[in-house]
Amino acid sequence: MVARRKIEETEPEPTLFALDRYLYRAWFTNLSLTPAGVWNFYDGRAGMERRIRELREDYALRKIPTHGFEANALYLEVVRLAYNLVTAFNKRVCRKIGKA
């Protein structure tokens, strides 16, 4: 299945390729869904791949340190807290500095 939509001015870099002012995305699946169902199912996952890559590379999630479930859950909560703090700092402080 292939979908096409017009690219917005403020949109980040396209996922598959762009032609003129349109963004194209393609899905190949063996799920028995309608085209709209395939789009809804996979569209939410597309944004998650970038977040997972960012967490893996920037927030030390390439290797989780323990084999215990509770310890891993606590470790991931601490990493999530660190991510949220950095994101909030970037949104609030860095934008104010850039406007000054």
Task: Please tell me about this protein's structure.
The chain has 100 residues and is α+β, with helices and mostly antiparallel strands. It is 55% helix and 13% strand. It contains two helices and three strands; from the N terminus they run E-E-E-H-H. The chain has helices spanning 35-58, 69-99; strands at 2-6, 17-19, 22-26. The protein has a three-stranded antiparallel sheet with strand order 1-3-2, with no helix packed on it. Strand 2 and strand 3 (22-26) form a beta hairpin. The model has no long low-confidence stretch (mean pLDDT 77).
Concise overview:
The chain is of the alpha+beta class. The chain has helices spanning 35-58, 69-99, and strands spanning 2-6, 17-19, 22-26.
Largest sheet data:
3 strands, antiparallel
Question: Helix and strand string, N-terminal first?
Answer: EEEHH
Radius of gyration: 19 Å
Q: Work out the helix count.
A: 2
Widest β-sheet, arrangement of strands: 1-3-2
Overall 3D shape? flat
Low-confidence stretches: none
Q: How large is the share of residues in beta strands?
A: 5-15%
Oligomer type: single chain
Beta strand count? 3
Q: Roughly what is the average pLDDT, rounded to an integer?
A: 77
As a percent range, the share of helical residues equals 55-70%
What structural class do you assign from the helix and strand content?
Answer: alpha+beta
Give the terminus-to-terminus CA distance: 47 Å
